[in-house]
Amino acid sequence: ETGVTQSPTHLIKTRGQQVTLRCSSQSGHNTVSWYQQALGQGPQFIFQYYREEENGRGNFPPRFSGLQFPNYSSELNVNALELDDSALYLCASSLAGGGPHNEQFFGPGTRLTVL
Amino acid sequence: AQKVTQAQTEISVVEKEDVTLDCVYETRDTTYYLFWYKQPPSGELVFLIRRNSFDEQNEISGRYSWNFQKSTSSFNFTITASQVVDSAVYFCALSEYGDAGGTSYGKLTFGQGTILTVHP
């Protein structure tokens, strides 16, 4: 069984640029959630994708957007990067619409640094 | 709004000591789930335990045990006979039914985390 994978591992961008982060869900999982974890903080929910549509969103501006593909993999796009976007971005996959009872399996994360 | 508080920022113990990590949560929902995750230095969050709001029975799983008390909104986690490999950041998290146009989803609300260091 293949776990959740994310790419790239690390990324350095400058303020104002755009970035795309990628996530492959665990085998058999159809729901992907994205979280932002600033240094020394707990992860914060960005949004969730189920059946290729956004299925809930946290308190993040529209410049954070995403996609889910037919194979359930997902992308997180961030436009107009700001210094505060520097964080570890975690992807999590789960089953069946991501209901609250479902365990979420996390990937290793992408460390984004904005200079 | 939902909130999770982990008052202990850092805990340091010597191997074989028992350690309890505290978690207090706030929610207006009657149906919710509580989780503990472990985050080693590699960064990947590892699922440890899950509890639903209707089941206050406390359990033991290997060296892990938890104490869920709905009356005090607490969900504490204990590691018995700690080991150096237990050193990590531990997160308590709350999951509720969301409000995404009627579709439920499992948004996790995390606490700030507790850094556990187990010394040999």
Word description of this protein:
The complex is a heterodimer of chains A (115) and B (120). The model of chain A has no long low-confidence stretch (mean pLDDT 92). Helices cover 0% and strands 50% of the residues of chain A. Chain A starts with a strand and ends with a strand. The radius of gyration of chain A is 13 Å and the shape is globular. Chain A is an all-beta fold. Chain B is mainly β. Chain B has strands spanning 3-5, 10-14, 19-21, 24-26, 32-39, 46-52, 60-61, 64-69, 74-79, 88-96, 108-110, 114-119. Chain A binds chain B through residues 33, 35, 40-45, 48, 50, 54-58, 88, 90, 92, 94, 97-109, 111, and chain B through 4, 31-33, 35, 37, 42-47, 50, 52, 91, 93, 95-98, 100, 103-113.
Itemize the secondary structure elements and their pairings:
The complex is a heterodimer of chains A (115) and B (120).
Chain A (H helix, E strand, L loop, with lengths): L4 E3 L2 E4 L5 E6 L6 E7 L6 E7 L2 E5 L6 E5 L5 E5 L8 E8 L10 E2 L3 E5 L1
Chain B lengths: L2 E3 L4 E5 L4 E3 L2 E3 L5 E8 L6 E7 L7 E2 L2 E6 L4 E6 L8 E9 L11 E3 L3 E6 L1
Parallel strand pairs in B: 2-12
Antiparallel strand pairs in B: 1-4, 3-9, 5-6, 5-10, 7-8, 8-9, 10-11, 10-12
| Poorly predicted tracts of residues of chain B | none
Count every beta strand of chain B, where a strand is a DSSP E run of 2 or more residues: 12
Along the chain, the helix and strand elements of chain A come as EEEEEEEEEEE
Q: From the helix content, strand content and strand pairing of chain B, which structural class follows?
A: mainly beta
Count of helical regions of chain B: 0
Quick one: how many beta strands of chain A?
Answer: 11
Number of helices of chain A: 0
For this entry, what is the oligomeric state of its chains? heterodimer
Helix residue percentage of chain A: under 10%
Largest sheet of chain B: 6 strands, mixed
End-to-end CA span of chain A: 37 Å
